[in-house]
Sequence to fold (287 residues):
Amino acid sequence: MNHPDRLRASIQAPGTTPLIGVFDMFSASLAARHYDGIFVSGFGFAASHYGLPDIGFIAWPDIVAFVQRLRLAFPRQHLLVDIDDGYVDPETACHVVQQLEAIGASGVILEDQQRPRRCGHVDGKRVLPLDEYLAKLDLVLRSRRDLVVVARTDATEEGEILRRAKALAATDADVILVDGVRSADRIRQVRRVIGDKPLLFNQIAGGKSPRLSLSELQRLGVDVAIYSTPCLFAAQTAIDQALAELKRADGRLPEHVEGAVGVGECLALLERNLSRHHDRAPADATR
Fold:
């Protein structure tokens, strides 16, 4: 089974499929120890690759190169890739989709935002006219072979959210995402208007959406859950604390204790990504 079909089968299976947002190869190495699914987060990639907010700075060759490195290191993981608005032009969107499919991506998310774009959980978002987005989405769908395509709307007004969700569900997109959804009741409304089409929910710490468990999401009829920033925000907290402690200690490293990460523990994690280890049993690969 190819990568898109494996993701499709996971989405169609009972329960809610979790995909963990990563921002670089190291965070992906940690995520792969715990989860089968990786989400290539635009928020995280903009932060790690450029040191900039997620407002449209990502260049498509950079994201393609990153996904290629991910697939080589993690041959078994689902890789769902945030491609924003397809990098503005519909023809570029199609080209990027074909590039990503050729290097082993499992799926992509294509949004309906206008530029300048915003993170889906902040104010000030503007969306394309629906017909314009549907035309771009149609080109993308016709350009892919098997790739999973998630159609995403960033509409914020209740009536427009439901109108767009229904229109997206009528396309050949595999999954529907309403980003920044603000309540469980809104999830239920979207679930009703999209019929049997799989539904994706995005949650981010400090964002607009409620914090919901996988069990709660399953009861709401959500098929996929992406967690955009747990690795990035944990890294920011831990690095800031570690450097503050180093400063307080006048530059003396803390004593290395059992359970802490040192050279050996870090190398053991990274060596799992070498291709000569890929044929080991999955249970061994997740230790």
Notes: Residues 230-248 form the longest helix (19 residues). The chain has one domain: 3-237. The first strand starts at residue 17 and ends at 22.
